[in-house]
């Protein structure tokens, strides 16, 4: 017969486990069948994910000037250690150098692994526990404008949307199937590959006919597309992000300045949040980062604190290729395959860092 102390003990164990890093949880799964079942349960995985602190994954092109000797590595940083590599071990990036990061959600990164093959492969990848899941192939001869990736809170499942005309498809992880859905009502001429998730929906900057630009919105639960007007239609609108709990867009003129507009959630009106001076915009998530000068320098701007810092390169012969939000989670724990080749990778990484 269980007592209130037994329940208190169980709750305390759950609280402790949910605060542990993924590598510790993987070790504890081998302690007992009870711990294995508990850590592997969807409820615990979700609880642990919600508690995990936000981090950033940076991909680096090593020896980028020499294509024959070039390769890609990645590093994972906390927000406070973005300008330093002290205590951080670079790891070999497991995908093609031309691969495209579709999106990142709850520690899972969706990768469109472009190669010389006729069809691209899509993977869901958790770099923290080195697991990957290959998404079922969707044969189609129609040109694809873009993919999007996110989490549907209504059914507690991950979805991938493939936007093409006239057919658009949605993939759900639990069923491992693609379904055809209604495409956007307005046909886009192009879709900016950078996107963000806000209030359960994916957002892109999209170009229509005659130079008309707007934000395309896809609700991950209802699977319905809608549009949002941009603040300054005559400007070059590049990407969308989230700033202080609002959807925001990065725009530019021809004067070398970048303007960040935020949309009021209540009035649906746009207002100028910041303007920055930079020669070239790279990409951004919760932080903005720009390149400027020669040799290339990268500046990070935090919209929450308005603090600016410098992001340094991994080595003298490397360049930063991409940066994305990536928390450390155990999502995909028992799904897909493992990429646990750490000993071989660490030897290779040590050689690279010594060059």
TrEMBL record:
<dbReference type="InterPro" id="IPR013187">
    <property type="entry name" value="F-box-assoc_dom_typ3"/>
</dbReference>
<feature type="region of interest" description="Disordered">
    <location>
        <begin position="336"/>
        <end position="355"/>
    </location>
</feature>
<feature type="compositionally biased region" description="Acidic residues">
    <location>
        <begin position="340"/>
        <end position="355"/>
    </location>
</feature>
<dbReference type="InterPro" id="IPR017451">
    <property type="entry name" value="F-box-assoc_interact_dom"/>
</dbReference>
<feature type="domain" description="F-box">
    <location>
        <begin position="8"/>
        <end position="48"/>
    </location>
</feature>
<dbReference type="Pfam" id="PF00646">
    <property type="entry name" value="F-box"/>
</dbReference>
<dbReference type="InterPro" id="IPR001810">
    <property type="entry name" value="F-box_dom"/>
</dbReference>
<protein>
    <recommendedName>
        <fullName>F-box domain-containing protein</fullName>
    </recommendedName>
</protein>
<dbReference type="InterPro" id="IPR036047">
    <property type="entry name" value="F-box-like_dom_sf"/>
</dbReference>
<dbReference type="InterPro" id="IPR011043">
    <property type="entry name" value="Gal_Oxase/kelch_b-propeller"/>
</dbReference>
<dbReference type="InterPro" id="IPR050796">
    <property type="entry name" value="SCF_F-box_component"/>
</dbReference>
<dbReference type="Pfam" id="PF08268">
    <property type="entry name" value="FBA_3"/>
</dbReference>
């Amino acid at each position: 017969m269980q007592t209130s102390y037994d329940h208190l003990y169980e709750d305390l164990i759950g609280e402790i486990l949910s605060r542990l890093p993924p590598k510790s949880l993987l070790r504890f799964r081998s302690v007992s069948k009870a711990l294995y079942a508990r850590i592997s349960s969807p409820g615990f995985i979700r609880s642990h994910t919600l508690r995990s602190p936000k981090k950033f994954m940076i991909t680096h092109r090593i020896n980028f000037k020499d294509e024959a000797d070039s390769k890609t590595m990645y590093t994972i940083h906390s927000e406070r250690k973005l300008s330093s590599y002290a205590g951080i071990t670079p790891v070999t990036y497991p995908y093609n150098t031309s691969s495209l990061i579709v999106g990142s959600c709850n520690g899972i990164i969706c990768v469109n692994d472009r190669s010389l093959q006729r069809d691209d492969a899509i993977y869901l990848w958790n770099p923290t526990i080195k697991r990957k899941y290959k998404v079922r192939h969707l044969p189609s001869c129609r040109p694809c404008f873009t993919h999007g990736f996110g989490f549907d809170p209504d059914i507690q499942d991950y979805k991938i949307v493939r936007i093409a005309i006239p057919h658009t498809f949605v993939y759900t992880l639990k069923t491992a199937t693609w379904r055809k859905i209604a495409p956007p009502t307005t046909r886009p001429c192009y879709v900016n590959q950078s996107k963000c998730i806000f209030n359960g929906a994916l957002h892109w900057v999209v170009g229509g006919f005659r130079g008309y630009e707007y934000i395309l919105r896809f609700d991950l639960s209802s699977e319905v597309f809608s549009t949002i007007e941009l603040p300054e239609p005559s400007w070059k609108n590049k990407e969308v992000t989230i700033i202080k709990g609002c959807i925001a867009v990065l725009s530019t003129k021809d004067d070398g300045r970048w303007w960040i507009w935020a949309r009021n959630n209540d009035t649906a009106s746009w207002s100028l949040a910041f303007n920055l001076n930079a020669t070239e915009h790279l990409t951004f998530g919760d932080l903005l980062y720009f390149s400027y000068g020669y040799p290339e320098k990268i500046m990070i701007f935090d919209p929450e604190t308005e603090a600016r810092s410098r992001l340094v390169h991994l080595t003298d012969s490397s360049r930063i290729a991409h940066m994305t939000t990536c928390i450390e989670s155990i999502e995909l724990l028992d799904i897909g395959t493992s990429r646990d080749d750490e000993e071989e990778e660490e030897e290779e990484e040590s050689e690279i860092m010594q060059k």
